[in-house]
Amino acid sequence: MNDERAMQQQPGRTPAPPHLKDGPGPGSPEAAALDATWRDPPGLLGWLAAVNHKAIARRFIVTTFCFFVAGGLLAFVMRLQLARPGARLVGPDLYNQLFTMHGSTMMFLFAVPVMQAVAVYLLPLMLGTRSVAFPRLNAFAYWIFLFGGLMLYAVFALGAAPDVGWFSYVPLAGPDYSPGKRTDFWAQMITFTELSALLEAIVVITTVFKLRAPGMALNRIPLFAWAMLVTAFMVLFAMPAVMLASTTLITDRLVGTHFYNPAEGGDAVLWQHLFWFFGHPEVYLIFLPGLGFLSAIIPTFARRPIFGYTAMVLALIATAFLAFGLWVHHMFAVNLPELGKSFFTAASMLIAIPSAVQIFCWIATLCSGRLDFKTPLLFALGFFFILVLGGLTGIMLASVPLDLQVHDSYFVVAHLHYVLIGGAVFPLFGAFYYWYPKITGRLMSERLGRWNFWLFFVGFNVTFFPMHLLGLRGMPRRVYTYQAGLGWDTLNLVATLGSWIIALSALLFVVNALRSLRRGAPAGPNPWGAGTLEWATESPPPPCNFHAIPVVHGRDPLWEPPRAAADGGPPPFTHVGGLAAHTRELLATTVLDARPDLRVNFPDPTIWPLVSALAVTVLFIGSIFTPWAVVWGSIPIAIALTAWFWPRRAETAVHLRLEQGP
Amino acid sequence: MTAPRRELDVSALPSYAFGHRSLMWWGTFGLIAIEGTIFAIAIGAYLYLRSQADSWPLGAPPPDLLWGSANTLILLASIWPNQKAKRAAEARDLVRTRGWLLVCLLFALAFLVLRGFEFAALHTRWDHNAYGSVVWTLLGLHTVHLLTDTYDTAVLDVLLFTGPMEGQRFVDVSENALYWYFVVFSWLPIYAVIYGVPRLH
Amino acid sequence: MMDALHDVLAPFGPQAGHVRGLWTLTLAVCTVVFAAVLAALLVALLRAQRAGAESAPDLSSLGRPEPGRRRSVIAAVAASTLLLLALIAASIFTDRALARLSTDGALRLEVTAHQWWWEVRYVEPQVADSFMTANEIHVPTGRPVIVTLKADDVIHSFWVPSLAGKKDLIPGRTATLNFRADRDGIYRGQCAEFCGSQHALMAFFVLAEPPERYAAWAAAQRRTAGEPAEGQPLRGREIFMRSSCAMCHAIDGTSAQAVRGPNLTHLASRGTLAAGSLANTPEDLRRWIADPQQVKPGSYMPATRLSSEDMDALVGYLQTLR
Amino acid sequence: MRTPPLRMAGTAVLALASSLALCACEREMRRFETPPDNRAAPRPEAPRTSALQPAEARSDPVRLPAGNGEGYEDNAYNVAQGKRLYRWFNCAGCHAQGGGGMGPALIDDQWRYGSEPAQVFSTIMQGRPNGMPSFGGHLSEDQVWQLTAYVRSMSGQLRKDTAPGRADALQANEPEAARDREPARPGAK
């Protein structure tokens, strides 16, 4: 491993003297040693080998945001085409690729991964630790996601983009009606992104359960961490369905299996069951992290702890359970037993209750707080208007008779954008304004922020509200054009105008983000006076996050600092000490009440996650063209993974010096 | 008033542990949850397709019981060396861990060989009809898990013989055994579905 | 083009009517809830004091519970739960009502969806009385209709907003949809499930007529195409038979019996061409035959290049198919 | 320090991408406009008999087309269209799913009148003695080229990534994309 040695020789990697233990705060030699230890190696190779959760998460966030912009531009072109009846700006073939790419991008390349990316950045800081669990797996998950997304856009550039919708219903997506490789690329993109999401779920679960600061019992972790934990568990049980579905689709297309061939005992509806068993939880995978953002933003700007913490947690869990019980409401138009449909109607409506609980708790928090109207809070308030409206149209769609009328019409387009943009994108923008200073050390411009918010809010409603009416007037979804004189012309034109406003606001956001990198006001550790741990360390955080891991005494550690016992008992612990500073050693705590449990050795940076990701990419893309790729493609993967896990003697020696059996 | 700095010294804590105290255990747990869900959904698909068909299995006799049952026995038997390996690892007995891991490996290889015969005994192909497709998928999925865990065990054992040794390796062995149990116990419902359901009337 | 009704909120039959009723109720409830939530939020924003980031957080809630707030939150949740239960009940009752549509003496249709047009078969007790048409469904006003839905290639969805909710047509399965048109009129329907290149131009029309007008229309539809007059029409038929037309289309009473495209026996009696893409005028018919890809890119109808007098003859013949 | 290998890798990737681009483009393109040279004049001389038997084979000398079906065989969409037309126009009536019946087998490429695209084209256009009807005039030229491409795919003569996969129908034999060129099957007329 000459690259390993190359890294050993990097200046940043000169191992600190082994006697140094952490504990003394910033400024001490121990602190310097910790930073040197946890910093990613310099140079291009070091960049490729990075495993620090903040480095990976920054790339992850930027990548997903680029996909968000790309997907938005696709939608913008669609709106241009639909501005006038019978427009010939894009033909049916291109249009079908556009809306398929738009849906797939937003769902698989933006909404779910961006939440996980933000979590990978924030969780260790919020929970008071120095890394996510399995940092190399985390890096691998990012690379595999990146390559999957790049593949999809590469084939789009080659005019071979999938064109059968982000839901790829068979038989239209099957071998008989979707010639060429377009749908195969879609199916493999699913495999890439879902693999990444599943691995990130494991990372999140382990991080939240095992790597919390001492004292942060489960009933004290920030609600955002709860939201991500619940989301991660949903990923574990939802994503496998779509991976199996996409695999059976691709085998139908490539090796002639008959899962979806009615003439040979297959059934097209099986696809819909598999897809929506994933597809509906998917919506909540996107929505729950959004709720987590709000539960972080609202208390800070209401200057008080959240109202009804326990109710909030239970609501998140209830949502997760119900989310698996309503996939059939996407299939009401299929002839299925009526009784079953009534059950799914009930489930689909009742899932509104947990959301209602949280909304009311937030309102209670706001009305009893002292408000600080900053841009993040504005986006949080925008959520209330848009998400509630979208939720109510969702209740309409849950009712079988109403759904049979508006299903697959523009009413649904309106609904899903109200829910997803209101429920995920508005909180996400709020979160971006909220944590940007933590990530970059500088505040974003408030003035541009307000413009950004109001333009987005207005543009969004101008674009999507008319679509409700279009749907009620009988305009179906996924049409590349429509005829004049059907009463759809004006509303479509209005929607297109709205899309211009959204584009402008997005542009302002990008400008604001880039300008503030240089010109933004220095933030300091805690610009908002927030209460969670990520604000305890400087902005941007040092490579090791905390020079001394804090001991937690409340739900908002910065608002509830340790207090000396009144009865003159021993003073409470304030911070952790005794972890090695010259190697990546971390404190693992117990799952329930976060008592110190283990000193865990964390792996050093390595190039092998990237190499493994490349090997996997070769297999996935090769298997689109020949099934044998699965055989020969697995050999480099095996080699790369073995090299990944094989311990280096130098590392082992360091570990042995610190080793202490259970 | 806020308290003065007081350090919680953790330098005496163990640096590795077995079971759910170790991060590895949670990683393995996550994998098991994912794979288990995949199996469950694949079985669901099997039963769904059956519910759509007038006769089952489609255009083929039920698969022969011989190899499948033989494999089930071997697989169940392989719990024993795994348990031994797990115990040895948790006792941090390098020599016996190596040995028992080797035995596990032999079991796995024997199983993989028989698995070949099992495919032949299905009397159908993935491209004959939906029944063939779903049976091959079920059996294929499980075989993939066998292959990966076999390879995993092999690498681990080679590491125990040649590589630099530290306590964490014993945890890896213990988690490897845990995953193997999953491969064994997930097989039982799959066995019941592949070999039992076609015989139901 | 036929100006037709296609509005969920303007029902012209009992099925769409029930849904309209449910819609009104749900919309009312949802509007009230929406207003209430926003009002509560607004009150909260107005009542709450203002403070900056530097101000110390108010930790009083940590010490003592907030019974007042808890009570109001619980009340709000309880209220929303009750409203939801009410809506569930309403939805289920509407479902029952939809299922109860009487089908005595119903007219039986069989609709088969193709990429990208609708094949309509009127199924009568006597096979001789059954007949085929395409993209245009005539029904007698006030008489229930039972539509059997099938798909020939991919999944489509049958939707006439003014008459009833939609139903998917899935290859390898059949579904049925019952509706009744209570008022004369032309109701537009369109495929609602994405089905490929021309999903956008896959419309059809339901024409509800008084029973006697319907009967007359049906009688006309049962007639096979007569012998065309000498001269242009006759020549037109020759061209039809000898060009690519006859490979896909059928004209009852001639040797053209192919079933790949719409049955043209009564083409001239229809209001539109190419599944509602064009008005059925000689000019548009010319355009359509000469180069379908200009009108409906990706449609499966090949271009037929004819000399202009041949085209005149062909179009002239097709015009006689009433 | 590692720039030269990087640059090499970069150029390699570029070359790969561009070659990919070319094949992907022609493989995936869907031309929805009718080719200008597309003639489908009615055939006054031969009366149509039935859908299965559009017209007797022509007695006049065989005329090969100008081109050799460029742009059809390497385009998945066109091949798929050919497969649809094969089904629509009931070619299976004589040739079955390629196994042959009344007509000769098509899953081997030992064809009496040649297996070059141009030869297959004129076989379809003009028909052949003793059975093979002439579809000239009844099919537009691009349709015949699409059929030609598909017919050749049945004997595995096309790129694997443009040949069709399995159909949503009863399976007679393996998907065209999975077939390799076979030697003549004895007994197949």
Automatic annotation (TrEMBL), chain A:
Family: Belongs to the heme-copper respiratory oxidase family.
PROSITE patterns for this protein: COX1 (PS50855), COX1_CUB (PS00077)
EC annotation from Swiss-Prot or TrEMBL: 7.1.1.9
Pathway: Energy metabolism; oxidative phosphorylation
Keyword Manganese: no
Keyword Transport part of the UniProt annotation: yes
Residue span of region Disordered: 1-33
Gene Ontology MF, one: metal ion binding
Subcellular location: Cell membrane
Annotated Cytochrome oxidase subunit I profile domain residues: 47-553
Keyword field: Cell membrane, Copper, Electron transport, Heme, Iron, Membrane, Metal-binding, Respiratory chain, Translocase, Transmembrane, Transmembrane helix, Transport
Catalysed reactions, as listed in the record: 4 Fe(II)-[cytochrome c] + O2 + 8 H(+)(in) = 4 Fe(III)-[cytochrome c] + 2 H2O + 4 H(+)(out)
Catalytic class of the enzyme: translocase
Sequence intervals crossing the membrane: 60-82, 102-127, 139-161, 185-211, 223-245, 283-302, 309-330, 342-365, 377-398, 410-436, 448-470, 490-511, 607-625, 631-647
Any one of the GO CC terms: plasma membrane
Topological category with respect to the lipid bilayer: Multi-pass membrane protein
Native source organism of the sequence: Variovorax paradoxus (strain S110)
Record function comment: Cytochrome c oxidase is the component of the respiratory chain that catalyzes the reduction of oxygen to water. Subunits 1-3 form the functional core of the enzyme complex. CO I is the catalytic subunit of the enzyme. Electrons originating in cytochrome c are transferred via the copper A center of subunit 2 and heme A of subunit 1 to the bimetallic center formed by heme A3 and copper B.
Pfam family, one: COX1
UniProt name for this protein: Cytochrome c oxidase subunit 1
GO-annotated biological processes: electron transport coupled proton transport; oxidative phosphorylation; respiratory electron transport chain
The organism's place on the tree of life at top rank: Bacteria
Automatic annotation (TrEMBL), chain B:
InterPro entries: Cyt_c/ubiquinol_Oxase_su3, Cyt_c_oxidase-like_su3, Cyt_c_oxidase_su3-like_sf, Cyt_c_oxidase_su3_a-hlx
Membrane-related topology note: Multi-pass membrane protein
SUPFAM superfamilies: Cytochrome c oxidase subunit III-like
Highest taxon in the source lineage: Bacteria
Keywords attached to this entry: Cell membrane, Membrane, Transmembrane, Transmembrane helix
Biological processes annotated in GO: aerobic electron transport chain
Transmembrane segments: 23-49, 61-80, 100-117, 178-197
Pfam families attached to this UniProt entry: COX3 (PF00510)
One example GO MF annotation: cytochrome-c oxidase activity
Statement: the UniProt record of this protein carries the keyword Membrane: yes
Subcellular location: Cell membrane
Gene Ontology CC terms: plasma membrane
Heme-copper oxidase subunit III family profile domain ranges (all copies): 1-199
UniProt family annotation: Belongs to the cytochrome c oxidase subunit 3 family.
Protein name: Putative cytochrome c oxidase subunit I
Organism of derivation: Variovorax paradoxus (strain S110)
